[in-house]
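User: Quick sanity check before I run a bigger batch. Here is a single chain. Can you write out its predicted 3D structure?
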Amino acid sequence: MAALDIRPLTADIGAEIHGVDLSEELDEGTVADIRQALLDYLVVFFRDQPITPDQHLAFAQRFGPINVAPFGPKLATHPAITVLDQVAPVGGLAARWHSDNTYMPNPPLGSILRAVEMPAVGGDTCFANMYKAYDALSEPMRALVDDLEAAHGLTYTLARAIDEGLAKEHLDTMQAQYPELIRPVVRVHPETGRRALFVNSNFTSRLVGATDAESSVLLPFLLNHVRSPEFQCRFRWEVDSVAFWDNRAVQHFAVPDYTERRVMHRVTVEEWD
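Assistant: Done. Predicted structure follows.
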């Protein structure tokens, strides 16, 4: 087992990992080292990884069962892989700070995204550390949000995806299959025990138990708070770059600054029972 070469991007989030070939069958020690790097840096990046869809899925399965998103375009030959294929994405759903699929009964542990085709310029992704977002709140605000809950649902995101031609599902059918869920505003990470803000623009609709007036002030404040640059890193993609982020403590934002085709393949990973 070769030692990984881990190069942090910022003081608080993100690292590039060199010295590993994701097309190979990884030994247990390498998998454990990558998992520890994910816990330490929250999002890890790999360059020059021309992996096949089968290899993409095999790598993901070393960290947990595959979590298949219930809507959105899929790779025809590999329906567990979501395809993000856009040319001019201004106003798109990925251009909002979010965690993936928090409306599902078991939100994914993480997502593994591979760049298949990239524009000549632009198309970066930003990632934000939700531990730091929580820690940066004042003590009275932390005391307040520690006891709050929020509603998560797919209505807003799926309705927009249908309108933009990115989903073919029926909204009412999907709402019945995935009813609104109540989750803590502050999530305790199951592996690190650290507290992280767990509300996001795509799936969190309201604060539970608060009045409409209170929710309309506090929830937008929290959603805006997670955008602070000091919590972030920014990754410049190249074809065959791979990003693996911890969905339990990270939000991400796809910068919509390109007008050439950008194709990404995403696999999400569930928690082990």
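The helical segments are 28-41, 53-61, 130-135, 139-146, 155-163, 171-177, 212-225.

User: Great, the batch can go ahead then.
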